[in-house]
Amino acid sequence: MISSRFSKLLSWSYLAALYGFIFLPVAVLVLFSFQDGRLPVPPFNGATLKWYGEVFSDGRLMSALGNSLMVALGSATVACVLGFCAAYGLARFVLPASRLQRGLLIAPMTVSYLIIALGLLTTFNWLGISLSLWTVGIGHVVINLPLCFAIIYASMGNHQKNIERAARDLGAAEWQVMTQVSAPMLMPSILAAFFLSVTFSWDEFIIAFLLSRFDVTLPVEIWSMLRSGLNPKTNAVGSVVFLVSVALLLILELIVFRRTAKK
Amino acid sequence: MATASLETRENRRAWGFVTPALLWTVAFFVIPFIVMAAISLATRKGREIVMAWNFDNYIEFFEKAHLLKGLFVSLEITFTVTIISVILAYPLAWIIAERVPQKWQRMALIMAILPFWTSYVVRSYSWLLVLAQNGVINNTLVYLGVISEPLELASTRTATVIGFVHFFVMLLTLTIYANLVQMPPNYRRAAADLGANGFQVFWHVVLPLTLPGIMVGAFLTFVLCIGDYITPQILGGNNELALPQVIMLQLGRRADFPMAATLSIILMVVVTMAYIACARWLKMERT
């Protein structure tokens, strides 16, 4: 009995220790974003919202935030539409070399972002295409398309196939089947793919860094802020980014997964 | 005849759905890769890139110590990180799966991976806050009188490893947990009934059944860790460069596209080898 109580204590301490390790940097980040002083290090001098004020009145940061949102929403939408169409085509029709096609669509997932970015950079350079938010968006679709395709393809089961066949028998055209029958049925996984793509693109650094020039996204702007050393303002902007990601995750959890769990 | 034409029409329609995604992948993934491979066979003459079609860059990689060292630094860091992360994540996944009450498990898991969703750049920066000369750890230890001089924590390999482990413990906890909850409880009960003690049940039943989860997580760790630039750059400083840092250096300071392309191809070959080893191992495990 004593040994079982001991092992229980051991488990809970381990759990607490690892949660401590996992949350330590984030807790420090958020806490010292309220630091009343120039340095985000102990001792904590008292709380102020000054740094958040500076973040929201910083024109460069705000335009970077706008760029990030635009690229994230745009590239996630394109990746989702392309991914959904491809999944629909490959799951519902018999096509030659379909295994090869699936492999090709998934392939970018297995390659480091740095290599994808470098490949695109050398190609754009070679073709004389100048870098902009568009090139960043193209890169983000490349990394999110495999994800969207995989998630949506995996959820295209056979029972939906019968419903689609019924719709077709009742005289629906293919595009009607797709937009009015398949898409609504698959909405949870489409939304999951969309929100995951948004968070990935929102957080992505290396592609945005290499493929942008004047209009940068938020992670790239934060990167250049790091050059000035530790600074409560960087903490504040980091905390804001974290909150946005967590909010997206909560939306995903509450709207998408809760609903699929209930079904 | 009628069915044949119907089939071709069906087929054309199906291609219509798949083609845009395929085109995107070919145009912005396959072709850039081919271009990069071609550029790796070029040489840089001043500011010009001359297509020389030779393997000079690859030969240079094996001859120049500072380039080759990048690969070894990366491999050392990656192996260290993978091993430490598995050792830390396994008990955590096990405790969440076994000790945490069922209705709290999902919550516990979400909590365990929450900082996963901080921006990657911000996550590395926040470790800097903890590890810097005047950071949380040093200031606390000096304040408590444990040490008189701040420890050299940031800008070392230790810092890089800590930053990486933080990220991959979350990832591995997820993959191992997924394996643990899939395992039918009868297996362990059967082993215990047949006289195995706690350790034997773990060693002969639980561990082998969760090895696929460990391997998938370890493979992801390997791929993401060896290709990452941010964490070693922010936390490791410039004392010893990992391969992605060497690549970025070729690009940023020297605008040497051919060499950067060569190093990227080498990086990809290493990852592919790891993938083949992992796939073969998983197949062996299944048969």
UniProtKB/TrEMBL annotation, chain A:
The chain crosses the membrane at residues 12-34, 69-91, 103-127, 133-155, 190-214, 234-257. The keyword Ligase does not apply. The keyword Membrane applies. Residues 65-252 form the ABC transmembrane type-1 domain. Keywords: Cell membrane, Membrane, Transmembrane, Transmembrane helix, Transport. It holds the Pfam family BPD_transp_1. It is a multi-pass membrane protein. It comes from the Bacteria. Belongs to the binding-protein-dependent transport system permease family. CysTW subfamily. This is ABC transporter permease. It comes from Thalassospira indica.
Automatic annotation (TrEMBL), chain B:
Residues 71-278 form the ABC transmembrane type-1 domain. This is ABC transporter permease. CDD domains: TM_PBP2. It is found in: Cell membrane. Gene3D superfamilies: MetI-like. PROSITE patterns: ABC_TM1. It comes from Thalassospira indica. It is a multi-pass membrane protein. The chain crosses the membrane at residues 21-42, 77-97, 104-122, 159-181, 201-226, 257-282. Pfam families: BPD_transp_1. It comes from the Bacteria. Its main location: membrane. Keywords: Cell membrane, Membrane, Transmembrane, Transmembrane helix, Transport.
